[in-house]
Write a structure and sequence with these properties.
Blueprint (H helix, E strand, L loop, with lengths): L5 E6 L1 E3 L2 E3 L2 E5 L2 H5 L4 H18 L5 E3 L6 E6 L1 H6 L1 H9 L4 H11 L2 E6 L7 E4 L2
Helix pairs in contact: 4-5
Length: 129
């Protein structure tokens, strides 16, 4: 039996010019993994992540570090979550190439979405890349 996939919300940001890649995640149920989009689990993770970003905004000006794909939700195999994501995060925070990080995330992900919102609309998920 394989491990259930892991759903991870992550933000590529800078606080006062210093990179950060905060994330929030949870394991997926089989039913959620088969759904078209991440639904309520994705919305909850996005909210948790954004609240953490809000709390950290006291550290300095907050800026997206990768334009539109700065706020992502990715579904990863548990092995990738444990073994590869921490190294990707450390490399990028340490000055690594943003496009290389995004490409690597896209390669690892089972599925991925950009988290978006429009005025007077709920949070939505757009397939990425």
């Amino acid at each position: 039996m394989t491990d259930a996939p892991y759903l991870v919300a992550l933000a590529l940001v800078e606080f006062g010019g210093k990179r950060a890649l905060p994330l929030s995640g949870k394991s997926q149920s089989a039913a959620a993994a088969d759904a078209i989009d991440p639904g309520d689990d994705g919305r909850t993770l996005a909210l948790e992540l954004l609240l953490r970003l809000w709390q950290r905004s006291d550290e300095g000006p907050l800026q997206r570090a990768a334009g539109d794909p700065s706020l992502l939700l990715v579904e990863l195999p548990m092995e990738s979550m444990r073994d590869q994501l921490p190294q990707l995060k450390a490399n990028w925070v340490g000055g690594g190439d943003t496009e290389a990080l995004l490409s690597s995330l896209g390669d690892l992900a089972i599925r991925a979405w950009r988290i978006t919102i429009a005025k007077y609309e709920p949070v939505s998920f757009m397939a990425w890349p």
